Each structure stands twice: as structure tokens, then as C-alpha cells.
Amino acid sequence: MKFINPKVDYAFKKIFGSQQSKEILISFLNAIIYDGEKTIESLTIVNPFNPGQIIGRGEWSFAPTLDIKAVLFDGSIVIIEMQVARMTAFNKRVAYNLAKAYANQLDKGENYPLLNPAIALTITDFILFKKTDDFINKFVFQ
């Protein structure tokens, strides 16, 4: 039996980003983010459209979309992206998408204490940081 490659965008979204696969996504996030501890018990998969300023010019403008966006039981936002090919300024794209997910929680006039944590989980099929032997890197902005 031949299986579809999970690195293909459609397959990745189907495996981890559909309502039918919520338990798989929960297990995956617990394994990656919480070192296998069963911290996440529930989550909501939301529209991966990352609203904000439109990028581009004229008719060909587009708004950034994420592969998967979920809201955890505690209100934390997780954006998950799979990137197979190296692209220019990819690290900036990750930071931008995370910042937009964080900032888009508030409407005009709402207070900053309402903000929940935002987590970017980025899976690459290439070495993003050349000076490390680790396969999994964890970064915390503080």
C-alpha cells in the first residue's frame, strides 16, 4: 500500500488540520511542545487565514495563510507550518506570521492583558540553522 507524502501541503493539512484528525493534532502538539506530557486535552482548529495588512500590489495581492491554526484549551494560539523548500527570508516569514497571530487577538481599544500566548511550530525539510546538530530546536521570545 502506498501512502501520500505528509510533506505535501494538502496531505499535511488533511492529516493534522481537519476536524476528523483533532486527536492526532493533540498528540502531535503534546509530543513536540510538551515533551510527550499530556498537557493539551482539547483544542479548536480555526480558519488558517491570518488577517491583517494585505501583502502585494494591485490585483495580485494576497493575505498570508497558515497551514494549520489552532486554539488550545487555555487560549494559547498555535500556528503550524510545513516548509519543504528553502525560501528567502523564511525566518522573517515565521516571525511575521507569529506576530500577526498574536496581535490579531485584540480588537481596537481592548486591553493587553487579554492577550494569550502564541506558539509557532515550524517543520522544515531542510536545515534552517546550520550551526546545530539538534533535530528539534525550541526558542522562547521573552
Provide a compact summary of the structure.
With 142 residues, the protein is an alpha+beta fold. It has helices spanning 9-16, 22-33, 90-103, and strands spanning 43-46, 68-72, 77-83, 118-124.
**Coarse morphology:** globular
Number of strands: 4
Biggest sheet descriptor: 4 strands, mixed
Whole-angstrom Rg:
16 Å
Helix coverage percent: 10-25%
- The number of distinct helices, counting runs of at least 4 residues, comes to 3
Q: What strand line-up does the widest sheet have?
A: 1-2-3-4
Uncertain residue segments: 53-64
The chain-level mean pLDDT equals: 79
Structural class of the secondary structure composition? Answer: alpha+beta
Please give the structural blueprint.
Elements: H1 9-16, H2 22-33, E1 43-46, E2 68-72, E3 77-83, H3 90-103, E4 118-124
Parallel strand pairs: 3-4
Antiparallel strand pairs: 1-2, 2-3
List keywords for this structure.
alpha+beta, four-stranded mixed β-sheet
Structure description:
A four-stranded mixed beta sheet has the order 1-2-3-4, sandwiched between helices. The chain has one domain. By secondary structure, it is α+β, with helices and mostly antiparallel strands. β2 and β3 form a beta hairpin. The longest helix is centred in the C-terminal third of the chain and has 14 residues. The protein contains three helices and four strands.
